[in-house]
Fold SGNH hydrolase-type esterase domain-containing protein.
Amino acid sequence: MHVVLLGDTVFDPGANAGSSGGVLAALRRVLPAGAAASSLARDGAAIDDLPAQLARLPADVTHLVVGIGSVDAIAALAGTTEATSSVGDALDRLAAIRDRFATRYAAVADALKATRRPVALCTIWRPPGREDRFARAAGVGIDLLDDAIVRIAVTGALALIDLRLVCPEDGDVDVTGAPSARGCARIAGAVARFADRTTPVATCSAQNRMAWRARSCGSGFRFG
């Protein structure tokens, strides 16, 4: 087994150096003996950067876990603090943002499926616990984008790790906004459960492939 982490800050070991090595180090501690884990994630990466990460996949990869979209969400929602003429206009603008995000994310999901490896998509990382006006407004927008990720995961028979449920508490984030040591451990646990419950499509039997697809369609592998 070789689990590869892709995406942005949440899976970049360099961005989480203060959290006991980040999610990657925590994952290596909980995977079974003989299993490997590595990360191609990069702090600041956007959805359009993911194909370059896929091009660098090691030959022995068995599972892919993707956490991407934070940078895209920040850029897309930057203008939502502007005044609108009505609630309907505001909702229309948010729907357009969601649709553009979903189109780009779906294209990346297709590239992930083409690897013929079990894939888990993560919802967008955002620190829990902030209750100021801007954070609440941004949270509504990010929830819409997360809904797009959930739909892509379910309709594409991909696994889903909902980081909102995995790391719901203040203690799951450090002062920089990255996952804390506890948050990293919780995310690593969800990733390990995903890897333990799936079999690489390229190496399993036809019967097991059908079972894996049935399980992923039925539950979405929604961990939380």
Notes: The chain has a mean pLDDT of 81. DSSP finds eight helices and five strands in the chain.
